[in-house]
Amino acid sequence: MARNIRLPDPTTESGTVKWVTIAVAGLFMAVVLFIPLLAVFLEAFRLGAGAFLAAITEPDALAAIRLTLLVAAISVPLNMVFGVAAAWAIAKYEFKGKAFLTTLIDLPFSVSPVIAGLVYVLLFGSGSVLGPIFNSAGLQVLFAVPGVVLATLFVTFPFVARELIPLMEDQGTGDEEAAISLGAGGWQTFWRVTLPNIKWGLLYGVLLCNARVMGEFGAVSVVSGRLRGETVTMPLQIEILYNEYNFSAAFAVAALLALLALVTLILKALLERVYGRDHAGGVRH
Amino acid sequence: MDVTVKNVRKEFGDFPALHDVSLDIRSGELIALLGPSGSGKTTLLRLIAGLDFPTEGAIYFGEDDASLKSVQERNIGFVFQHYALFRHMTVLDNVGFGLKVRKGRNRPAKPDIEKRARDLLEFVQLRGLEKRYPNQLSGGQRQRVALARALAIEPKVLLLDEPFGALDAQVRKELRRWLREVHESTGHTTVFVTHDQEEALELADRVVVMSQGRIEQVGKPDEVYDRPNSPTVFSFIGESSKLPVSINRGQVYFADRPLGLDAQGSADGEAELFFRPHDIEIVEDAGVAIVGIVAASRRTAGTRQVELEVGGAKERVEIEIPVDHPATAQTRIAFRPKRWSVFPSR
Asked: Which pTM does this prediction carry?
Protein backbone atom coordinates (compact mmCIF):
# COMPACT_ATOMS: atom_id res chain seq x y z
CA MET A 1 0.00 0.00 0.00
CA ALA A 2 1.37 3.35 -0.98
CA ARG A 3 1.67 5.85 1.77
CA ASN A 4 0.56 9.25 0.77
CA ILE A 5 3.20 11.57 2.16
CA ARG A 6 2.95 15.23 1.41
CA LEU A 7 5.95 17.31 2.28
CA PRO A 8 6.65 20.79 1.00
CA ASP A 9 9.41 21.28 -1.51
CA PRO A 10 12.56 21.62 0.66
CA THR A 11 13.44 24.98 -0.89
CA THR A 12 9.94 26.43 -0.60
CA GLU A 13 8.98 28.47 2.44
CA SER A 14 5.48 28.60 3.89
CA GLY A 15 2.90 30.99 2.46
CA THR A 16 3.28 33.44 5.35
CA VAL A 17 7.00 33.88 4.77
CA LYS A 18 6.38 34.43 1.07
CA TRP A 19 3.80 37.17 1.62
CA VAL A 20 5.81 38.87 4.37
CA THR A 21 8.91 39.13 2.14
CA ILE A 22 6.87 40.44 -0.76
CA ALA A 23 5.16 42.98 1.50
CA VAL A 24 8.46 44.19 2.97
CA ALA A 25 10.02 44.60 -0.47
CA GLY A 26 6.90 46.31 -1.83
CA LEU A 27 6.60 48.71 1.10
CA PHE A 28 10.28 49.61 0.87
CA MET A 29 9.98 50.29 -2.86
CA ALA A 30 6.89 52.40 -2.29
CA VAL A 31 8.38 54.52 0.49
CA VAL A 32 11.86 54.96 -0.96
CA LEU A 33 11.17 55.00 -4.69
CA PHE A 34 7.64 55.20 -5.89
CA ILE A 35 6.07 57.81 -3.56
CA PRO A 36 8.97 60.29 -3.96
CA LEU A 37 8.89 59.89 -7.73
CA LEU A 38 5.13 60.41 -7.73
CA ALA A 39 5.58 63.45 -5.48
CA VAL A 40 7.97 64.97 -8.00
CA PHE A 41 5.41 64.73 -10.78
CA LEU A 42 2.50 65.87 -8.58
CA GLU A 43 4.46 68.87 -7.34
CA ALA A 44 5.51 69.71 -10.90
CA PHE A 45 1.92 69.83 -12.08
CA ARG A 46 0.47 71.37 -8.88
CA LEU A 47 -0.05 74.72 -10.57
CA GLY A 48 -1.35 73.11 -13.73
CA ALA A 49 0.12 72.10 -17.06
CA GLY A 50 0.47 75.72 -18.15
CA ALA A 51 2.74 76.58 -15.23
CA PHE A 52 4.74 73.40 -15.91
CA LEU A 53 5.27 74.35 -19.54
CA ALA A 54 6.16 77.90 -18.61
CA ALA A 55 8.73 76.64 -16.09
CA ILE A 56 10.51 74.41 -18.55
CA THR A 57 10.42 76.85 -21.47
CA GLU A 58 11.81 79.71 -19.40
CA PRO A 59 15.19 80.80 -20.99
CA ASP A 60 17.44 79.60 -18.14
CA ALA A 61 15.65 76.26 -18.03
CA LEU A 62 15.94 75.89 -21.79
CA ALA A 63 19.66 76.74 -21.60
CA ALA A 64 20.09 74.09 -18.90
CA ILE A 65 18.30 71.49 -21.01
CA ARG A 66 20.42 72.41 -24.04
CA LEU A 67 23.65 72.19 -22.04
CA THR A 68 22.69 68.82 -20.56
CA LEU A 69 21.97 67.45 -24.03
CA LEU A 70 25.20 68.94 -25.39
CA VAL A 71 27.27 67.42 -22.58
CA ALA A 72 25.57 64.06 -23.21
CA ALA A 73 26.18 64.36 -26.97
CA ILE A 74 29.91 64.85 -26.33
CA SER A 75 30.51 62.59 -23.33
CA VAL A 76 28.53 59.51 -24.33
CA PRO A 77 30.26 58.93 -27.72
CA LEU A 78 33.68 59.64 -26.20
CA ASN A 79 33.09 57.20 -23.37
CA MET A 80 31.73 54.68 -25.82
CA VAL A 81 34.92 54.78 -27.87
CA PHE A 82 37.05 54.74 -24.75
CA GLY A 83 35.01 51.90 -23.24
CA VAL A 84 35.32 49.69 -26.33
CA ALA A 85 39.06 50.39 -26.59
CA ALA A 86 39.70 49.71 -22.91
CA ALA A 87 37.57 46.56 -22.86
CA TRP A 88 39.27 45.34 -26.04
CA ALA A 89 42.72 45.91 -24.57
CA ILE A 90 41.89 44.25 -21.28
CA ALA A 91 39.90 41.31 -22.62
CA LYS A 92 41.95 40.36 -25.65
CA TYR A 93 45.57 41.12 -24.82
CA GLU A 94 48.04 40.19 -22.13
CA PHE A 95 50.27 43.05 -21.07
CA LYS A 96 52.06 44.39 -18.05
CA GLY A 97 49.93 46.68 -15.89
CA LYS A 98 46.67 45.06 -17.02
CA ALA A 99 45.46 44.55 -13.45
CA PHE A 100 46.38 48.16 -12.69
CA LEU A 101 44.41 49.45 -15.67
CA THR A 102 41.39 47.38 -14.64
CA THR A 103 41.53 48.90 -11.15
CA LEU A 104 41.98 52.37 -12.60
CA ILE A 105 38.82 52.03 -14.67
CA ASP A 106 36.89 51.46 -11.46
CA LEU A 107 38.36 54.55 -9.80
CA PRO A 108 35.49 56.93 -10.67
CA PHE A 109 33.07 54.51 -8.99
CA SER A 110 35.01 54.57 -5.75
CA VAL A 111 35.95 58.25 -5.65
CA SER A 112 33.38 60.82 -4.56
CA PRO A 113 32.24 62.94 -7.56
CA VAL A 114 33.05 66.10 -5.55
CA ILE A 115 36.70 65.03 -5.49
CA ALA A 116 36.55 64.45 -9.25
CA GLY A 117 35.40 68.06 -9.64
CA LEU A 118 38.08 69.38 -7.31
CA VAL A 119 40.77 67.58 -9.31
CA TYR A 120 39.85 69.69 -12.33
CA VAL A 121 39.77 72.88 -10.25
CA LEU A 122 43.32 72.06 -9.14
CA LEU A 123 44.40 71.27 -12.70
CA PHE A 124 42.81 74.20 -14.51
CA GLY A 125 42.25 76.83 -11.77
CA SER A 126 43.92 80.24 -11.90
CA GLY A 127 46.70 79.14 -9.54
CA SER A 128 47.46 75.97 -11.53
CA VAL A 129 49.97 75.26 -14.28
CA LEU A 130 47.56 74.23 -17.03
CA GLY A 131 44.85 76.85 -16.48
CA PRO A 132 46.84 79.93 -17.58
CA ILE A 133 48.25 78.05 -20.59
CA PHE A 134 44.76 77.23 -21.84
CA ASN A 135 43.53 80.72 -20.97
CA SER A 136 46.25 82.40 -23.00
CA ALA A 137 45.22 80.15 -25.89
CA GLY A 138 41.76 81.59 -25.51
CA LEU A 139 40.23 78.46 -24.04
CA GLN A 140 38.47 78.81 -20.70
CA VAL A 141 38.23 75.35 -19.14
CA LEU A 142 37.13 75.90 -15.58
CA PHE A 143 33.70 77.52 -15.01
CA ALA A 144 32.90 76.86 -18.67
CA VAL A 145 31.48 74.09 -20.84
CA PRO A 146 34.82 72.25 -21.35
CA GLY A 147 35.17 71.86 -17.58
CA VAL A 148 31.63 70.53 -17.27
CA VAL A 149 32.33 67.99 -20.06
CA LEU A 150 35.65 66.91 -18.50
CA ALA A 151 34.13 66.38 -15.07
CA THR A 152 31.25 64.43 -16.57
CA LEU A 153 33.64 62.28 -18.61
CA PHE A 154 35.63 61.44 -15.50
CA VAL A 155 32.59 60.36 -13.54
CA THR A 156 31.00 58.29 -16.29
CA PHE A 157 33.85 56.58 -18.07
CA PRO A 158 33.60 53.17 -16.33
CA PHE A 159 30.07 52.38 -17.51
CA VAL A 160 30.70 51.12 -21.03
CA ALA A 161 34.04 49.46 -20.22
CA ARG A 162 32.61 47.71 -17.14
CA GLU A 163 29.75 46.34 -19.19
CA LEU A 164 31.99 45.07 -22.00
CA ILE A 165 35.01 43.61 -20.19
CA PRO A 166 33.29 40.48 -18.78
CA LEU A 167 31.41 39.98 -22.05
CA MET A 168 34.53 40.18 -24.20
CA GLU A 169 36.59 38.09 -21.80
CA ASP A 170 33.91 35.45 -21.98
CA GLN A 171 33.88 35.47 -25.78
CA GLY A 172 37.67 35.25 -26.11
CA THR A 173 39.53 35.77 -29.36
CA GLY A 174 38.31 32.68 -31.22
CA ASP A 175 35.89 34.53 -33.52
CA GLU A 176 38.50 37.16 -34.39
CA GLU A 177 41.05 34.46 -35.20
CA ALA A 178 38.50 32.71 -37.40
CA ALA A 179 37.80 35.99 -39.23
CA ILE A 180 41.47 36.75 -39.95
CA SER A 181 42.14 33.16 -40.98
CA LEU A 182 39.42 33.70 -43.61
CA GLY A 183 41.25 36.76 -44.90
CA ALA A 184 39.44 39.59 -43.09
CA GLY A 185 41.51 42.66 -42.19
CA GLY A 186 41.54 44.41 -38.81
CA TRP A 187 38.68 46.83 -39.50
CA GLN A 188 36.58 44.21 -41.28
CA THR A 189 37.02 41.90 -38.30
CA PHE A 190 36.00 44.65 -35.90
CA TRP A 191 32.91 45.80 -37.81
CA ARG A 192 31.68 42.42 -38.99
CA VAL A 193 32.59 40.16 -36.08
CA THR A 194 33.58 41.91 -32.85
CA LEU A 195 31.00 44.70 -32.85
CA PRO A 196 27.98 42.47 -33.63
CA ASN A 197 29.09 40.14 -30.84
CA ILE A 198 29.07 42.93 -28.26
CA LYS A 199 26.28 45.14 -29.60
CA TRP A 200 23.72 44.47 -26.86
CA GLY A 201 26.21 44.87 -24.07
CA LEU A 202 27.50 48.04 -25.68
CA LEU A 203 24.04 49.54 -26.04
CA TYR A 204 23.24 48.69 -22.45
CA GLY A 205 26.47 50.33 -21.25
CA VAL A 206 25.75 53.42 -23.35
CA LEU A 207 22.28 53.75 -21.83
CA LEU A 208 23.60 53.52 -18.28
CA CYS A 209 26.35 55.98 -19.17
CA ASN A 210 23.82 58.39 -20.65
CA ALA A 211 21.59 58.23 -17.57
CA ARG A 212 24.51 59.10 -15.35
CA VAL A 213 25.77 61.86 -17.67
CA MET A 214 22.41 63.63 -17.54
CA GLY A 215 22.00 63.21 -13.80
CA GLU A 216 25.55 64.00 -12.63
CA PHE A 217 25.52 66.67 -9.94
CA GLY A 218 28.53 66.59 -7.60
CA ALA A 219 31.47 66.84 -9.99
CA VAL A 220 29.71 69.26 -12.34
CA SER A 221 28.63 71.44 -9.43
CA VAL A 222 32.27 72.01 -8.41
CA VAL A 223 33.59 72.96 -11.87
CA SER A 224 30.61 74.77 -13.35
CA GLY A 225 30.72 78.09 -11.47
CA ARG A 226 26.94 78.20 -11.93
CA LEU A 227 26.77 80.91 -14.55
CA ARG A 228 23.06 80.92 -15.31
CA GLY A 229 22.23 80.15 -18.88
CA GLU A 230 25.86 79.22 -19.55
CA THR A 231 27.30 76.48 -17.34
CA VAL A 232 24.23 75.28 -15.49
CA THR A 233 23.02 71.76 -16.32
CA MET A 234 19.59 70.42 -15.42
CA PRO A 235 20.51 68.99 -12.01
CA LEU A 236 22.22 72.30 -11.10
CA GLN A 237 19.25 74.30 -12.38
CA ILE A 238 16.96 72.26 -10.14
CA GLU A 239 19.10 73.02 -7.10
CA ILE A 240 19.27 76.73 -7.92
CA LEU A 241 15.51 76.99 -8.32
CA TYR A 242 14.98 75.03 -5.14
CA ASN A 243 17.32 77.26 -3.17
CA GLU A 244 15.35 80.26 -4.44
CA TYR A 245 12.15 78.72 -3.02
CA ASN A 246 10.84 78.42 -6.58
CA PHE A 247 9.53 74.95 -5.78
CA SER A 248 7.10 74.38 -8.62
CA ALA A 249 9.70 75.37 -11.26
CA ALA A 250 12.32 73.21 -9.53
CA PHE A 251 9.98 70.26 -9.59
CA ALA A 252 9.00 70.90 -13.20
CA VAL A 253 12.65 70.59 -14.35
CA ALA A 254 13.08 67.65 -11.96
CA ALA A 255 10.08 65.93 -13.51
CA LEU A 256 11.60 66.36 -16.96
CA LEU A 257 14.91 64.91 -15.78
CA ALA A 258 13.11 62.03 -14.07
CA LEU A 259 11.23 61.43 -17.30
CA LEU A 260 14.51 61.13 -19.19
CA ALA A 261 15.66 58.59 -16.61
CA LEU A 262 12.41 56.67 -16.95
CA VAL A 263 12.77 56.54 -20.70
CA THR A 264 16.28 55.14 -20.24
CA LEU A 265 14.93 52.57 -17.82
CA ILE A 266 12.19 51.48 -20.22
CA LEU A 267 14.68 51.22 -23.09
CA LYS A 268 16.92 49.11 -20.86
CA ALA A 269 14.04 46.79 -19.96
CA LEU A 270 13.14 46.42 -23.63
CA LEU A 271 16.77 45.69 -24.49
CA GLU A 272 16.94 43.05 -21.81
CA ARG A 273 13.92 41.32 -23.30
CA VAL A 274 15.43 41.34 -26.78
CA TYR A 275 18.80 40.31 -25.43
CA GLY A 276 17.18 37.50 -23.47
CA ARG A 277 15.34 36.31 -26.55
CA ASP A 278 18.58 36.32 -28.50
CA HIS A 279 20.03 33.86 -26.03
CA ALA A 280 16.88 31.79 -25.76
CA GLY A 281 17.39 31.06 -29.48
CA GLY A 282 19.82 28.38 -28.32
CA VAL A 283 17.06 26.10 -27.09
CA ARG A 284 14.81 26.51 -30.11
CA HIS A 285 14.99 23.81 -32.76
CA MET B 1 51.24 22.71 -51.51
CA ASP B 2 54.29 21.36 -49.66
CA VAL B 3 54.76 22.71 -46.16
CA THR B 4 58.21 22.71 -44.61
CA VAL B 5 58.86 23.52 -40.98
CA LYS B 6 62.52 24.35 -40.46
CA ASN B 7 64.13 24.38 -37.01
CA VAL B 8 61.23 26.15 -35.37
CA ARG B 9 61.41 27.15 -31.74
CA LYS B 10 58.57 28.84 -29.89
CA GLU B 11 58.58 30.37 -26.45
CA PHE B 12 55.65 31.93 -24.62
CA GLY B 13 57.37 34.29 -22.22
CA ASP B 14 59.89 32.05 -20.49
CA PHE B 15 57.99 28.89 -21.30
CA PRO B 16 59.41 26.90 -24.23
CA ALA B 17 56.50 25.35 -26.12
CA LEU B 18 58.50 23.95 -29.06
CA HIS B 19 62.21 23.10 -29.23
CA ASP B 20 63.82 23.00 -32.64
CA VAL B 21 61.07 21.27 -34.58
CA SER B 22 61.50 20.33 -38.25
CA LEU B 23 58.92 18.64 -40.43
CA ASP B 24 58.28 18.07 -44.13
CA ILE B 25 54.67 17.83 -45.21
CA ARG B 26 54.11 16.70 -48.78
CA SER B 27 51.47 18.15 -51.04
CA GLY B 28 48.10 16.44 -50.70
CA GLU B 29 49.05 14.55 -47.57
CA LEU B 30 46.80 14.02 -44.57
CA ILE B 31 48.97 14.47 -41.51
CA ALA B 32 48.10 13.96 -37.85
CA LEU B 33 49.93 15.82 -35.09
CA LEU B 34 49.49 13.43 -32.19
CA GLY B 35 50.50 13.95 -28.59
CA PRO B 36 49.30 14.42 -25.03
CA SER B 37 48.15 17.87 -23.92
CA GLY B 38 51.08 20.23 -23.53
CA SER B 39 53.12 18.45 -26.17
CA GLY B 40 53.12 21.49 -28.45
CA LYS B 41 50.93 20.07 -31.23
CA THR B 42 48.42 22.93 -31.26
CA THR B 43 51.25 25.46 -31.05
CA LEU B 44 52.83 23.91 -34.15
CA LEU B 45 49.49 24.05 -36.00
CA ARG B 46 48.99 27.72 -35.08
CA LEU B 47 52.51 28.54 -36.23
CA ILE B 48 51.80 26.95 -39.61
CA ALA B 49 48.57 28.98 -39.80
CA GLY B 50 50.28 32.23 -38.84
CA LEU B 51 48.10 32.74 -35.76
CA ASP B 52 51.36 32.73 -33.78
CA PHE B 53 54.87 33.47 -34.91
CA PRO B 54 57.95 31.35 -34.23
CA THR B 55 60.64 32.66 -31.88
CA GLU B 56 63.23 31.11 -34.21
CA GLY B 57 63.14 29.17 -37.45
CA ALA B 58 61.00 29.41 -40.56
CA ILE B 59 57.99 27.85 -42.23
CA TYR B 60 57.87 27.42 -46.02
CA PHE B 61 54.79 27.02 -48.20
CA GLY B 62 56.28 25.47 -51.32
CA GLU B 63 59.31 27.63 -52.05
CA ASP B 64 57.94 30.74 -50.30
CA ASP B 65 59.00 31.71 -46.82
CA ALA B 66 55.55 31.94 -45.21
CA SER B 67 56.93 33.05 -41.86
CA LEU B 68 57.12 36.59 -43.23
CA LYS B 69 53.44 36.55 -44.19
CA SER B 70 50.36 37.37 -42.15
CA VAL B 71 47.53 34.89 -41.63
CA GLN B 72 45.47 36.64 -44.30
CA GLU B 73 48.25 36.31 -46.89
CA ARG B 74 48.90 32.63 -46.20
CA ASN B 75 45.50 31.58 -47.49
CA ILE B 76 44.97 28.71 -45.08
CA GLY B 77 41.74 27.12 -43.95
CA PHE B 78 41.59 26.77 -40.18
CA VAL B 79 38.96 24.77 -38.32
CA PHE B 80 38.89 25.64 -34.64
CA GLN B 81 38.35 23.20 -31.82
CA HIS B 82 35.18 24.97 -30.69
CA TYR B 83 34.25 25.89 -34.29
CA ALA B 84 34.28 29.69 -33.68
CA LEU B 85 31.27 30.14 -35.91
CA PHE B 86 29.96 33.72 -36.07
CA ARG B 87 26.88 33.48 -33.86
CA HIS B 88 25.08 36.48 -35.33
CA MET B 89 25.29 35.18 -38.92
CA THR B 90 23.27 32.49 -40.62
CA VAL B 91 24.96 29.30 -41.75
CA LEU B 92 25.02 30.64 -45.32
CA ASP B 93 26.63 33.94 -44.25
CA ASN B 94 29.19 32.09 -42.17
CA VAL B 95 30.26 30.01 -45.14
CA GLY B 96 30.36 33.04 -47.47
CA PHE B 97 32.29 35.24 -45.03
CA GLY B 98 35.75 34.54 -46.42
CA LEU B 99 34.65 35.57 -49.91
CA LYS B 100 32.70 38.64 -48.75
CA VAL B 101 35.69 40.19 -47.00
CA ARG B 102 37.87 40.00 -50.12
CA LYS B 103 38.84 43.33 -51.55
CA GLY B 104 38.09 44.87 -54.94
CA ARG B 105 38.44 42.66 -57.97
CA ASN B 106 39.12 39.52 -55.96
CA ARG B 107 35.65 39.61 -54.46
CA PRO B 108 33.15 37.51 -56.39
CA ALA B 109 29.72 39.01 -57.15
CA LYS B 110 27.04 38.53 -54.52
CA PRO B 111 25.10 35.78 -56.36
CA ASP B 112 28.37 33.92 -56.99
CA ILE B 113 29.26 34.03 -53.31
CA GLU B 114 25.85 32.68 -52.40
CA LYS B 115 26.09 29.95 -55.02
CA ARG B 116 29.51 28.88 -53.78
CA ALA B 117 28.25 28.82 -50.18
CA ARG B 118 25.23 26.74 -51.17
CA ASP B 119 27.40 24.30 -53.12
CA LEU B 120 29.69 23.89 -50.13
CA LEU B 121 26.77 23.28 -47.78
CA GLU B 122 25.60 20.63 -50.19
CA PHE B 123 29.10 19.16 -50.17
CA VAL B 124 29.14 18.93 -46.36
CA GLN B 125 25.61 17.49 -46.44
CA LEU B 126 23.85 20.39 -44.76
CA ARG B 127 21.40 21.39 -47.46
CA GLY B 128 18.30 23.04 -46.06
CA LEU B 129 20.03 24.56 -43.05
CA GLU B 130 21.18 27.76 -44.83
CA LYS B 131 18.98 30.09 -42.78
CA ARG B 132 19.75 28.57 -39.40
CA TYR B 133 21.96 30.21 -36.80
CA PRO B 134 24.89 28.34 -35.24
CA ASN B 135 23.12 27.94 -31.88
CA GLN B 136 20.35 26.03 -33.65
CA LEU B 137 22.74 23.32 -34.87
CA SER B 138 24.11 20.19 -33.23
CA GLY B 139 27.83 19.83 -32.56
CA GLY B 140 28.41 17.66 -35.63
CA GLN B 141 26.54 20.11 -37.86
CA ARG B 142 28.55 23.04 -36.50
CA GLN B 143 31.74 21.17 -37.28
CA ARG B 144 30.59 20.70 -40.88
CA VAL B 145 29.73 24.39 -41.22
CA ALA B 146 33.17 25.29 -39.84
CA LEU B 147 34.77 23.03 -42.44
CA ALA B 148 32.64 24.42 -45.29
CA ARG B 149 33.58 27.96 -44.19
CA ALA B 150 37.28 27.07 -44.24
CA LEU B 151 37.00 25.39 -47.66
CA ALA B 152 35.17 28.39 -49.18
CA ILE B 153 38.38 30.39 -49.61
CA GLU B 154 40.02 27.52 -51.51
CA PRO B 155 42.87 27.27 -49.03
CA LYS B 156 46.30 25.98 -49.95
CA VAL B 157 46.49 24.11 -46.66
CA LEU B 158 43.69 22.90 -44.42
CA LEU B 159 44.45 22.96 -40.70
CA LEU B 160 42.18 21.40 -38.09
CA ASP B 161 42.61 21.77 -34.33
CA GLU B 162 41.16 18.76 -32.47
CA PRO B 163 38.37 18.61 -35.05
CA PHE B 164 36.39 15.94 -33.23
CA GLY B 165 37.37 16.76 -29.65
CA ALA B 166 34.04 18.19 -28.55
CA LEU B 167 31.81 15.55 -30.13
CA ASP B 168 30.42 12.34 -28.70
CA ALA B 169 31.89 9.00 -29.73
CA GLN B 170 29.27 8.03 -32.31
CA VAL B 171 29.36 11.33 -34.24
CA ARG B 172 33.13 11.37 -33.98
CA LYS B 173 33.49 8.03 -35.77
CA GLU B 174 31.10 9.10 -38.50
CA LEU B 175 32.81 12.45 -39.08
CA ARG B 176 36.23 10.79 -39.10
CA ARG B 177 35.31 8.63 -42.04
CA TRP B 178 33.67 11.59 -43.71
CA LEU B 179 36.75 13.83 -43.29
CA ARG B 180 38.82 11.16 -45.02
CA GLU B 181 36.39 11.26 -47.95
CA VAL B 182 36.49 15.07 -48.04
CA HIS B 183 40.26 14.95 -48.06
CA GLU B 184 40.33 12.49 -50.92
CA SER B 185 37.86 14.45 -53.04
CA THR B 186 39.46 17.90 -52.47
CA GLY B 187 43.10 16.84 -52.41
CA HIS B 188 44.08 19.63 -49.99
CA THR B 189 47.20 19.27 -47.90
CA THR B 190 45.60 18.66 -44.53
CA VAL B 191 47.09 18.80 -41.03
CA PHE B 192 45.02 17.93 -37.98
CA VAL B 193 45.80 17.91 -34.30
CA THR B 194 44.56 15.15 -32.03
CA HIS B 195 45.31 13.51 -28.70
CA ASP B 196 43.41 10.41 -29.75
CA GLN B 197 45.88 7.83 -31.11
CA GLU B 198 43.10 5.71 -32.60
CA GLU B 199 41.91 8.73 -34.60
CA ALA B 200 45.43 9.50 -35.82
CA LEU B 201 46.19 5.91 -36.82
CA GLU B 202 42.90 5.43 -38.64
CA LEU B 203 42.79 8.71 -40.51
CA ALA B 204 46.28 9.94 -41.32
CA ASP B 205 48.71 9.12 -44.11
CA ARG B 206 51.49 9.93 -41.71
CA VAL B 207 51.48 10.48 -37.97
CA VAL B 208 53.72 12.98 -36.19
CA VAL B 209 54.09 11.92 -32.57
CA MET B 210 54.93 14.85 -30.30
CA SER B 211 55.91 15.06 -26.67
CA GLN B 212 57.10 17.94 -24.52
CA GLY B 213 57.63 20.31 -27.40
CA ARG B 214 59.57 17.85 -29.55
CA ILE B 215 58.76 15.55 -32.45
CA GLU B 216 59.41 12.00 -31.27
CA GLN B 217 58.66 10.13 -34.47
CA VAL B 218 57.19 10.70 -37.90
CA GLY B 219 55.88 7.77 -39.89
CA LYS B 220 53.03 5.87 -41.44
CA PRO B 221 50.51 4.55 -38.89
CA ASP B 222 52.00 1.03 -39.19
CA GLU B 223 55.51 2.30 -38.58
CA VAL B 224 54.73 4.25 -35.43
CA TYR B 225 52.65 1.39 -34.05
CA ASP B 226 54.91 -1.52 -34.97
CA ARG B 227 58.29 0.15 -34.71
CA PRO B 228 58.10 2.94 -32.14
CA ASN B 229 61.51 4.58 -31.90
CA SER B 230 61.35 5.64 -28.26
CA PRO B 231 59.80 4.58 -24.94
CA THR B 232 57.55 7.67 -25.12
CA VAL B 233 56.08 6.70 -28.47
CA PHE B 234 55.74 3.06 -27.41
CA SER B 235 53.78 3.92 -24.29
CA PHE B 236 51.71 6.66 -25.91
CA ILE B 237 50.54 4.69 -28.92
CA GLY B 238 48.58 1.57 -28.14
CA GLU B 239 48.66 -0.54 -25.00
CA SER B 240 52.10 -1.30 -23.65
CA SER B 241 53.82 -3.19 -20.87
CA LYS B 242 57.36 -2.57 -19.75
CA LEU B 243 59.94 -4.28 -17.60
CA PRO B 244 63.36 -3.18 -16.36
CA VAL B 245 65.88 -5.62 -17.85
CA SER B 246 69.60 -5.93 -18.33
CA ILE B 247 71.47 -6.65 -21.53
CA ASN B 248 74.41 -9.00 -21.64
CA ARG B 249 76.12 -9.97 -24.91
CA GLY B 250 73.07 -9.21 -27.01
CA GLN B 251 70.67 -11.14 -24.82
CA VAL B 252 67.89 -9.80 -22.59
CA TYR B 253 67.95 -10.80 -18.91
CA PHE B 254 65.22 -10.20 -16.36
CA ALA B 255 65.97 -10.80 -12.68
CA ASP B 256 69.20 -12.54 -13.77
CA ARG B 257 67.34 -15.04 -15.95
CA PRO B 258 67.70 -15.06 -19.72
CA LEU B 259 64.43 -14.52 -21.59
CA GLY B 260 65.54 -15.88 -24.90
CA LEU B 261 65.01 -12.48 -26.50
CA ASP B 262 67.44 -10.70 -28.76
CA ALA B 263 68.57 -7.27 -27.52
CA GLN B 264 68.15 -5.77 -31.02
CA GLY B 265 71.60 -4.24 -30.93
CA SER B 266 71.20 -2.54 -27.56
CA ALA B 267 74.46 -2.03 -25.68
CA ASP B 268 75.21 -4.05 -22.54
CA GLY B 269 73.78 -2.58 -19.35
CA GLU B 270 70.46 -1.53 -17.88
CA ALA B 271 67.53 -1.25 -20.30
CA GLU B 272 63.77 -1.30 -20.58
CA LEU B 273 61.84 -4.00 -22.40
CA PHE B 274 58.57 -2.90 -24.07
CA PHE B 275 55.93 -5.14 -25.58
CA ARG B 276 52.21 -5.09 -26.42
CA PRO B 277 50.12 -7.03 -23.87
CA HIS B 278 48.39 -8.98 -26.66
CA ASP B 279 51.60 -9.74 -28.57
CA ILE B 280 52.85 -12.56 -26.33
CA GLU B 281 52.93 -16.33 -26.23
CA ILE B 282 52.29 -18.51 -23.20
CA VAL B 283 55.12 -21.04 -22.76
CA GLU B 284 55.36 -24.28 -20.79
CA ASP B 285 59.10 -24.14 -20.26
CA ALA B 286 59.59 -21.57 -17.50
CA GLY B 287 63.37 -21.68 -18.02
CA VAL B 288 63.62 -18.94 -20.63
CA ALA B 289 60.51 -16.86 -20.05
CA ILE B 290 58.98 -14.23 -17.84
CA VAL B 291 57.25 -15.98 -14.98
CA GLY B 292 54.64 -14.27 -12.88
CA ILE B 293 51.94 -14.83 -10.30
CA VAL B 294 48.44 -13.71 -11.24
CA ALA B 295 47.57 -10.64 -9.21
CA ALA B 296 44.44 -9.52 -10.98
CA SER B 297 42.44 -10.55 -14.00
CA ARG B 298 39.74 -8.75 -15.94
CA ARG B 299 37.53 -9.86 -18.79
CA THR B 300 37.35 -7.37 -21.65
CA ALA B 301 35.46 -8.36 -24.78
CA GLY B 302 37.20 -11.37 -26.36
CA THR B 303 40.27 -11.48 -24.14
CA ARG B 304 41.29 -11.65 -20.54
CA GLN B 305 43.68 -9.04 -19.22
CA VAL B 306 45.92 -10.53 -16.63
CA GLU B 307 48.14 -8.59 -14.31
CA LEU B 308 51.19 -10.53 -13.23
CA GLU B 309 53.58 -9.99 -10.36
CA VAL B 310 57.05 -10.77 -11.64
CA GLY B 311 60.59 -10.68 -10.32
CA GLY B 312 59.69 -11.34 -6.70
CA ALA B 313 56.62 -9.05 -6.79
CA LYS B 314 58.72 -5.99 -7.48
CA GLU B 315 57.19 -5.39 -10.90
CA ARG B 316 53.77 -5.77 -12.41
CA VAL B 317 53.10 -6.36 -16.09
CA GLU B 318 49.91 -6.76 -18.02
CA ILE B 319 49.29 -9.41 -20.66
CA GLU B 320 46.24 -10.40 -22.68
CA ILE B 321 45.31 -14.00 -23.31
CA PRO B 322 42.33 -15.51 -25.10
CA VAL B 323 39.48 -16.31 -22.70
CA ASP B 324 39.46 -19.99 -23.60
CA HIS B 325 43.19 -20.48 -23.02
CA PRO B 326 43.95 -22.99 -20.22
CA ALA B 327 46.38 -20.49 -18.70
CA THR B 328 43.43 -18.40 -17.46
CA ALA B 329 42.89 -21.01 -14.74
CA GLN B 330 46.51 -20.98 -13.59
CA THR B 331 47.95 -18.88 -10.82
CA ARG B 332 51.44 -18.96 -12.34
CA ILE B 333 51.97 -18.01 -15.94
CA ALA B 334 55.14 -18.11 -18.01
CA PHE B 335 55.21 -16.08 -21.22
CA ARG B 336 57.46 -14.50 -23.79
CA PRO B 337 56.74 -11.45 -25.95
CA LYS B 338 56.41 -12.31 -29.63
CA ARG B 339 57.46 -8.80 -30.64
CA TRP B 340 59.33 -6.39 -28.43
CA SER B 341 61.54 -3.33 -28.27
CA VAL B 342 64.52 -2.64 -26.05
CA PHE B 343 65.47 0.90 -25.08
CA PRO B 344 68.46 1.79 -22.90
CA SER B 345 67.45 3.09 -19.44
CA ARG B 346 67.48 6.84 -19.10
From this structure: 0.81
